[in-house]
Every structure is written in structure tokens, then in C-alpha cells.
Amino acid sequence: MSFDWYPLLNSLRIAAISCVLVFFTGIFFAYYAAKLPRWLKGVLDVILTLPMVLPPTVCGYFLLLIFGVKRPLGMLLLQFGVKFVMTWYGGILAAAVVAFPLMYRTARGAFESFDKTLAYSGQTLGLSNGYIFWRIRMPACRQGILAGTVLAFARALGEYGATSMLIGYTPGKTATISTTVYQLWRTNDEKGAMFWVLINLAISTVVLLSVNMLEARQKKAVKA
Amino acid sequence: MSLTVDIRKNFGSFLLDVSFTAENGITALLGASGCGKSMTLKCIAGIEKPDEGRIELDGRVLFDSASRINLPPQLRRVGYLFQNYALFPNMTVRQNILCGLNREKDRAVKEQRLQDMLRMMRLEGLEGRKPHQLSGGQQQRVALARILVNDPQILLLDEPFSALDAHLRDSLKVELRDLLERFGREVLLVTHDRNEAYNMSREIAVMDAGRLLCCKPTKELFADPGSVQAAILTGCKNIAAAVRVDEHRVDVPAWGVRLETRQKVEEGLRAVGIRAHYFNPAAPQNRFPVRFTEEMEEPFETILQFRYADQKEGSAPVWWRLPKDKRPAQFPAELGIAPANILLLYE
Fold first, then answer.
1. Rounded distance, CA B114 to CA A174, Å?
2. Which residue out of B90, B98, B101, B148 would a mutagenesis test of the A interface target, given it has the greatest number of A Cβ atoms within 10 Å?
3. Contact at CB, B47 and A125, closer than 8 angstroms
4. Which residues pair with residue B70 across a beta bridge?
5. Which residues of B touch A121 (CB under 8 A)?
6. pLDDT tens digits, residue range B93-124?
7. Which of A116, B21, B119, B134 has the highest Cβ tally under 10 A?
């Protein structure tokens, strides 16, 4: 029997897809939260950041409350053949919810330090708001947004709690690296567990190194 | 060509209430920092929305709360030079200037106007540079080029020299003034620097705490500021509360003197001002005994501080500023001042 690489593949696709989702939603909320009145911004900020501080199992619990197949929304989605419970793509939902605050907060920080006069001068020159956002604001905040994306990706890749609550562990179906490590260790396969631990370590190290490099470049850019 | 502004905006801690008309030429908005000058510019450009009022440029309504008109900045055709020039850091000089040509669709025309502007602003050879690779003066020229190719109907300049080294400022002032004269349209210059306002503008509007105090031709304002705030902003160092005695005499209790004035003193006088340059040991009028207390040297001038013989305890000393070569070896016992040099300050 050839070695089962499924957990790596599954983890990578869950992390990649949820990272893309979080990239756009995080930026969207970060951009519009900055424009809200202060009190509303405070409330929204708490709600959007909660998944970062709650135990992931609690996030998973909430997800089950909403998307469980016996819940109204879950039942409705089932009509369209969409089921987030015990499916691999349910993992995308779990990972996205947990990784979202990282993207949101980093992007917000980047937007807040953005020099508003750049946007203003673009407007007075007659540039459209879309052009200003994509060609001036995003490039100026590039380092921060990239760092947020990388962090969100890393967090999604390492997600365990919410994932195990929502999609459980089925080899070849919903298994991810983190749930596999737990499963192998539980069944006394220490060597197998160690293998996946090393893979996870390797990926995380690469990710964190790239975050540090981005931050260093950002600092240099600010100085210049 | 004219700009009419009549706006109010409540910021909680302070109220912006500005109303003026500026005609062709350079008008300076002079005021201390935080008095609402830049906010006024932002309202004209459409970056900030006033609570109520009306802004009109050459007959076009840019903002009118009564008829709910509020043109977005993109449609106002207002050129805005920001204090930090706001060049797009990720773009080259060429790309920055092309941003100002976004309305022009014809590529050949676009290129032609870009080249003309590069030549006019002496930016040839710098097209490929990023903003951080330029000197302060070059950055200012790129920012102006980007605005001028956009063909605005009015130019707003927000403290255009504050980001520059002192030695660059004077030569750039001359350069910018010439350029603005060629531009030939309305220019609004925001500054807290009285010299800058004097050098550059034909008219000055004085702002204080969100209000417009007065709007006068430049030389007139310096000759007769009319209010305490305007006197301070035009650099008058000696200001003291004063009481009207009759049409040409005022009492200054803090200095313990009665001064003769050439201007007619109206009811409601609040204070008098004397510019530090205007004391004269030889002047026969308004002559009083003085006692010198301090001396402070500057490169080319010296400041002598003195107190009048009957000056009140605790009141600020009076400043006399004179060129170093005119400094008397022995301090005079009495100083006079011409009645024409007494500024009458109301409000």
C-alpha cells in the first residue's frame, strides 16, 4: 500500500481556499469598519475578533449550531446538496472562521496607517474610488496585507478544534494534518504522528520566516 | 473667475464658520495651526462635507446644503497641493503625472501633454524615478505638474513650503509665485507663516478659531490689522489693552502711558499694537522714559526688551527690534514712536 498523503493535500486545499475567502472578506470588513462611527466600529470589532480569542472548539460548537443538519440553515442548505458537517469542504468554513480575525486585524492596521492624503489627492485628480483602492491604497498597504494573508494561511493550516468539531476525522475524506496527528497518537502510532508533526513544523517555519521577512521589508519601506 | 465660500461645520469642540469671496490671483488664508484653514480647503475640495452652506466656483455650484448638491471631489476640478505633496509612492514620476491626465483618452495627446509638463516643470530625466528618490523641491514640482496637467479651475495650496528645508524655501517661493501667475487662475494658499503670506499673496484672509476675522489686500492688512488676532498673526510683538480717551488719544494702563494716534480712534477699542521695528529714540512724539531689561541677539538684528517707567508689575516687557549696526552704544533713556505706527485693534 502506498503512503497516504491525503491529509497533506486536504490540509493544503482547505488552507488555500479558506485563505482566499478570508483575504477578500477580511479586507472588505477592514476597509468598511474604518469608515463606521466609532461605537459601531467598536461593537463590530469585538464580534469580528471573537473567533481569535474563543477556544476553537467553541467556534466549532457555534458552527454546528448554525450549520448542523438538523438546524434550519443546515436543512435549507441540504436541499441544495450542500452539507458542511462531516465533509472536507466543511473544513474550509471552520478554518476560515478561525483565520478571519488575523486577516481582518492585520489589514485594518495596514489601512489605518495608510496616508489618507494619497486617497484625497487621487480623488481631486479625478481618479475613481476603485482605481484609488486597487492601484494606490492596496500597493501602499501591500506588506501588511501580505503578512495578514500569510498568518491567516498558517492559522488555517494549523486549525484543529473547530475542524474536528465540524468535520471530524475520516481517513481519506475529512482527515487533515492536525486531526491525523491526534488520531495517530491516540492509536499509539508514534512514528506516524511524528512524521506529520515534522511536516507541520516545516510548513509553519517557512510561513513564519516569510512573515518576518515581510515585516522587515515593511520597516525598511517606512524608513525610506 | 471667482470662488464664493459660505460654510459651517460643527466639530463638537469647535465650530468652523467661514464665508468669503476670492477673486483672481493668490489669496492667502493666514491662521495659527488648528484654526480651520486646512479644513476649509478640504470642504472646498469635497473631501470634507460642511454641515450647511454653499460653495460656488466660477458660477458652478460645488456644494449647496439647501438644494442638496454635493459634488464628489472627482467632479469639482479643484487642484489640491497637500502639505506632504501626496505623491503616490508606488508610482514613478511619469505614472504620477499620468494620473493627472486620466480624463484625456487620446494616447498621443496624453503623451504630448505629459512631455510639455515635464519640460515646463524641469523634470526631464526624472520620469523613471520614484518619489522617495527625489529632493523636496523636485517632489513639489512633480505634485504641481500632476495637478496642473489635470487643468483645475482653482488651485489650493496647503502649507506648500513646510516640508522643505529653510534654505530651499525662498528660492522656491519665487519660482512658485511666477508659476502661479502664469497659471492665471484662482489660488488659495493656506499658511501660518506671515512672511509667506506677504511674499505670495495679493489678499489675505485671517482665520482664528474656525472664524474668518477679515479679508484685506496684503499690504493693507500689515499696515492696519484691525484686530488683536490679526495683529499677532502679522507678527506684531507688542500688544496691550487700551482705553479710548478721545479721537486721537488712547490710554494703555499696562504700560502706564497715553499714546497719540494718527488714525481716528473709534468706540469699542480693545487694544493697541506697536511693531517692534518702529520704536525710535529720535521721535519727538509718544516719547516716554524707559528702562532696558534684556537683550537678545539674532544674526542681523538685535532685540532689546524694555519697560516703561510707569509700567505695571507683571506685564510683559516691550520689544524693540533693530538692525545690529543701528544699536546704540548706550541705551537711550527715552523712546518715542510715530503716531502713524500705533495700530488700533478692535475685536
1. 59
2. B90
3. no
4. B63
5. 80, 82, 86, 143
6. 999 999 999 998 999 999 999 999 999 998 99
7. B134
Residue B100: list chain A partners with CB under 8 A: 125
Nearest to B343 by CA among B265, B286, B247, B281: B265
What pLDDT does A1 receive?
47
- Name the residue in chain B with its Cα closest to that of A126: B74
The closest CB to that of B79, out of A122, A124, A128, belongs to A124
Q: Is A113 on the interface with B (CB under 8 A)?
A: no
CB contact A128 to B (< 8 Å): yes
What residues of A are in contact with residue B147 (Cβ under 8 Å)? Answer: 125
Dihedrals phi, psi of A47, to nearest 5 degrees: -60, -45
From the CA of A143, how many Å to the nearest CA of chain B? 12
pLDDT by residue (tens digit) across A75-133? 999 999 889 999 999 999 999 999 999 999 999 999 988 999 999 999 999 999 999 99
pLDDT tens for residues B19-42? Answer: 999 887 899 999 998 899 999 999
Q: In the 8-state DSSP scheme, what is residue B70? A: E
The residue of A117, A121, A138 whose CB has the most chain B CBs within 10 angstroms, and thus the best one to mutate to test that interface, is A121
Backbone angles phi, psi at B95, to 5 degrees: -65, -35
Secondary structure class of B167 (helix, strand, coil): helix
Taking CA–CA distances from B78, the nearest residue in chain A reads A124
Give yes or no for a contact between B154 and B186, defined as CB atoms under 8 angstroms apart: yes
User: How many helices (DSSP H) and strands (DSSP E) are in chain B?
Assistant: 8, 21
Q: Identify whether the C-beta of residue B286 lies closer than 8 Å to the C-beta of residue B339.
A: yes
A140 and B CB contact within 8 Å = yes
* Beta strand B203-208 pairing with B26-30: parallel
Give how far the C-alpha of residue B343 lies from the chain's centroid of Cα atoms, to the nearest Å: 20
Residue type, A142: R
Which ipTM score applies to this complex?
0.85
Q: What residues in A contact B83, CB-CB < 8 Å?
A: 117
Residue recorded with cell 472548539: A57
Looking at beta carbons, which residues of chain A come within 8 Å of B76?
124
